[in-house]
Amino acid sequence: MKYLYTLIFFLLTMSTYSQSDLPYSEVPDYPEAYTAGTVAARMIDGLGFRYYWATDSLRELDLNYKPSVDARTCMETLEHIYGMSTMILNATKSAVNQEDSTELNFNEIRKKTLFNLKEASDILKNSDDLDNMTIKYEGKSGLREYPFWHHLNGPIADCLWHVGQIVSFRRSSGNPIYNKVSFFNGKLRK
After folding, report:
1. SS3 string of 83-116?
2. How far is 40 from 45, CA to CA, in rounded Å?
3. How many C-alpha atoms does 186 have within 13 Å on its Cβ side?
4. What SS3 string covers 143-166?
5. CA neighbor of 55 nearest in space, from 121, 105, 2
6. pLDDT (tens digit, 9 = 90+) per residue, 5-54?
């Protein structure tokens, strides 16, 4: 019966959207020129590609997996990555980050995270004005802003770190990542 529920969950997951509707099944072609914006966008594209394949075909068992009592579950880690993808996108739009308590399911989180990364990348590819793409927080002590540099060692690096955790978690729960993924080339091996 447990396997039947897993199969039903998987089929519902796959029927909710087509894989081709989501960005980052491949890393997009690289720009012709190196600029601050295109390099930052390429980092996000690499993150998007890794996230796409790390989250492809996750089962309920995978989403509930956590390596220890004190660790986050895979799903909690995905929620954290989603929050950071929103932070990355907000900076490219000069928007202030705010708490979001909206409950989302796995499919919604995956889709929104991928589209947040894609939109941020597209904005960066068309702008080199990284000085104005600050991380902004509005809190009790007022508005705090951090320069774009903090994206590199903050949310972008943190997302990459956590995507690696997702890959490790799914391997530990018996569902390794698809073995035809070439992270170096940003495509599937033939």
Report:
1. HHHHHHHHHHCCCCECCCCCCCCHHHHHHHHHHH
2. 9
3. 15
4. EEEECCHHHHHHHHHHHHHHHHHH
5. 105
6. 443 444 444 444 445 599 999 999 989 999 999 999 999 999 999 999 99
Amino acid identity of residue 62, one-letter, is D
Size of the chain in residues: 190
Q: Are 134 and 148 in contact (CB under 8 A)?
A: yes
What's the CA gap between 48 and 118, in Å, rounded?
Answer: 7
pTM confidence score = 0.87
* 179 contact partners, CB below 8 Å, separation of at least 6: none
Residues near 97 by beta carbon (within 8 Å), at least 6 away in sequence: 86, 87, 90, 135, 136, 137, 138
